[in-house]
Amino acid sequence: MIRSLAVVVAAFVVMEPVTYLAHRFVFHGPGLFLHRSHHRRWSAPRPDDGWVEANDVFPVIFAGVTMMAFALGFNVETWSVLLPVCIGVTMYGVAYAFVHDVYIHGRLGPRRANARLDRLAVAHSLHHRFGGEPYGMLLPIVPTALRERARQRIGTVPRP
Ligand SMILES: [Zn+2]
Ligand SMILES: [Zn+2]
How far is the CA of 84 from the centre of ligand 2 (A)? Predict the structure, then answer.
């Protein structure tokens, strides 16, 4: 039980650097043809923008892979370690969706302000504005040079 809980926590924590790498090298790499829809929509919204964006294909793929891994974990004894891994990955996915889609981009409507989440929102807004760092979401690392650039250009000074 303790071991399984440790695997859940480890999977959750490891998902942040995995997300960073996926966002930086897949979304802004070969997956840019889908991810571009997210950046375009939030920088230049159009009246005919629907609720869904092409970028939503990514979470659907990730959920599909996780569900297959869950099925393997449930049905094949030797793969049962996949269950706590999938629970941690799913918890990260839920946290990501809440922070990024619900809180930052308000896709479910207006929300009550929260200082801690606002720090994440400011960091993510720099990714949208300048198209580079920070690629992380729950633990975004804003380089000093970018913080200075943001201070000069838009007066926003995200804390490290
Ligand atoms: Zn991006
Ligand atoms: Zn975004």
Answer: 28
